[in-house]
């Protein structure tokens, strides 16, 4: 199926301190142009981002998230990026309402770990071991991590989705950071991929905040 042509914004989410790195995200601001799920999935596959967001109601923050091969009820970096773009107090996802806030250079979302898709959180002894990992074959979704400075909560991580859709390594993944924060029960400062930065903090009632910097790359068609 050929998806109709439409405009979309390209963001980088979870950028480093100087605005570099980050995970690219496509956002179709007018989701009404592509109401059919098959058309949305086709466009997400064509664009090839790890996720593409379709905004169904910009005032209420209603969004729909797709990878190149499937629809997601929730995902971290799409929610952070779209929260920054729309500047709304919450996003409405199929998983549930995601609280949002802007705090200086960081955009934060608040979500529940059980909304995140399953990931294998695999700890390594040193950051260099994480750096030296080769791309694993398709299979399980692996979040490889190691302490850089445990007392300070600093972590080195890489993410391997294990999908056969061209996304061998995910540069920055908020959902995996959410799960790791819930497992460790503490605030984290994560350097993932080539140099992306993700901040997290546990909240009362089992919620977790995930934050990062967002940069607008431009609008494409």
TrEMBL record:
The lineage of its organism: Bacteria, Bacillati, Actinomycetota, Actinomycetes, Kitasatosporales. GO terms for molecular function: catalytic activity. It comes from the Bacteria. Pfam families: PhzC-PhzF. This is PhzF family phenazine biosynthesis protein.
